[in-house]
Amino acid sequence: MLESIPIEAILFLFLLATAVVIARLEDLFAAAMLTGMFSLLSAGMFTLMDAVDVAFTEAAVGAGISTVLILGTLALTSRKENQQKTRIMPFVVVALTGTALVYGTLDMPHYGSPGTGPVPAAGNAVIHHHVAPEYMKGTEKYFGLPNMVTTVLGSYRGYDTLGETAVIFAAAVGVLLMLAPPATRREEETEQEPAETEGEL
Amino acid sequence: MKTSMKMQEKVILRVVARACIPFILLFGLYVQFHGDFGPGGGFQAGVIFAAAFILYGLIFGLGKLRQVVSARTVEILVSSGLLLFAAVGFATLALGGNFLDYRVIDSHSPKHGLHYGILIIELGVGITVTAAMLAIFYAFAGRERRA
Q: How far apart are CA B81 and CA B73, in angstroms?
């Protein structure tokens, strides 16, 4: 019986359990660790779906850097969440949105469907007949590289990757502008910093 | 950071971190330059590379990390990666191709041009991502805990 349960379902169950526990935990340190686990489980899901590059990113960013940044933030605030009244309205909104999203997926092509039949029916991934076959053929013909994710990111969609890098650059600049004191004031500023922190956290 | 002050006294953490960091850096380089043959690429490599530095900063303290990579260096690297990427685009323009058309880089073999182009732009992505992660870590970890 156990063999008939797909591993995806088990991973999803773990993901769900982790998410519920994170939402219910009051110890923020444990919650931070669990978000790392959540990312690692997501990375497992992506690996199962053969999206190794995405899994790689999720494991490195989600489970690695994000957890460290959350811990760094925790070092600045308290370890415990403030007591909050249980409110029913947010739960209803989230449940309704979730139901709507799941309902929306019913029309989507099934996972891994080749898309050979008539277009409108569910179970046909039209996207697989658009540019994707061209990219796959081209990767072999023009590049001779085995990883087509790289060829798509680096060459076919080079403009987008340039834009993405610009976004990362902008993000870093934004964080530096908001959090780091200006270089000229860096030494004398340390006295004032705690006062600034108070407003934001 | 207060936590890092305490961590400096933990012998096991220090020894294990010291043993791990070279391998993390090596793995980062592998992911960076092997990205067109295996999974990975500039983005993942950048994060892994930054993780090695951040681990060093967590264990040995932010001051030590600042000695290795100063905040100024990080600021310069953040922009130089993006500039390297864009420069490849303009170089291909100058060589008579379209923007980011790597085939013109190697006049003998367009295939090699594509390989070089991808390798260089991935390096640009890697540099920017590493520096961006470090910049964010510096900004977070450099703040004092409020009284």
A: 12
Decide: helix, strand or coil at residue A80. strand
Cα–Cα distance between B56 and B66 in angstroms, integer?
Answer: 10
Task: Select the residue from B53, B82, B109 to test the A interface by mutation, using most A Cβ atoms within 10 A.
Answer: B82
Q: Is A155–B135 a contact, with Cβ atoms under 8 angstroms apart? A: no
Residue in the block written with tokens 């732009």:
B121
Q: How confident is the model at residue B143 (pLDDT cuts 50, 70, 90)?
A: confident
CB interface of A with B, residues 95-154, below 8 Å: 142-147, 149-151, 153-154
Contact between B117 and A154 under an 8 Å Cβ cutoff? The reply is: yes
All residue ranges of chain A with pLDDT < 50 are 184-201
Angstrom distance (rounded) from CA B69 to CA B131: 10
Task: Report CB contact under 8 Å: A155, B144.
Answer: no
Which residue among A76, A155, A172 places its CB closest to the CB of B135?
A: A172
Asked whether A150 and B36 are in contact (CB, 8 A), the reply is: yes
Provide the whole-model pTM.
Answer: 0.81
Cβ distance of A183 and B71 shorter than 8 Å: yes
- Per-residue pLDDT tens digits for A145-184: 888 888 888 888 889 999 999 999 999 999 888 886 655 4
Q: Is the pLDDT of residue B62 over 60?
A: yes
3-state secondary structure of B18: helix
Q: How high is the pLDDT of residue A185? A: 46
Contacts of B98 (CB under 8 A, 6+ apart): B92
Using pLDDT thresholds of 50, 70 and 90, give the confidence band for residue B139. Answer: confident
- Residue B81: count of CB within 10 angstroms of its CB: 26
